[in-house]
Design a protein that fits this description.
Number of strands: 5
Largest sheet: 5 strands, antiparallel
Oligomer: single chain
Distance between the termini: 51 Å
Strand order of the largest sheet: 1-2-3-4-5
Number of helices: 3
Radius of gyration: 16 Å
Length: 132
């Protein structure tokens, strides 16, 4: 039997299940167009590029933002991670940790991705027009 993200989330227990369900509900509300799949074995939401991943642990979940470096100014000091790459994350120890800041980060992460995709599309169209 092949595991999918919904099955993985539903198989979680207790606090981790509550956190994961809350995060999924928030992402689905902000980005119902996002594709959810498993990447590196964890639920990951994408829009042509990875946007957010949810990594469950026994007593918490980490919410990874693939463009987290660009989100740091939105919630100064809240995101964790190294300067080695653009990924930043939050540790969520309870469903109550999915607060206004987390919702704003989720919204902005998808907004940045959509903006980047629109710029890429405009550049492709501009290049195509120049070739005529």
């Amino acid at each position: 039997m092949r595991l999918d993200p919904d099955m993985m989330i539903e198989a979680l227990e207790g606090r981790t299940w509550a956190i994961a369900r809350t995060v999924k509900r928030e992402i689905d509300a902000v980005a119902p167009f996002a594709e959810c799949g498993l990447a590196m074995g964890v639920p990951t939401w994408s829009v042509h590029h990875r946007v957010v991943s949810l990594i469950p642990f026994p007593a918490k979940c980490n919410l990874h933002f693939w463009q987290g470096e660009r989100l740091e100014a939105l919630v100064p000091g809240r995101l964790r991670g190294t300067n080695a790459g653009s990924i930043r994350f939050l540790e969520l120890h309870s469903m109550l940790d999915v607060d206004g800041d987390v919702r704003a980060l989720i919204r902005e992460a998808f907004s940045l991705t959509l903006s980047d995709l629109a710029k890429e599309e405009a550049a492709r169209e501009s290049n195509a027009a120049l070739q005529f």
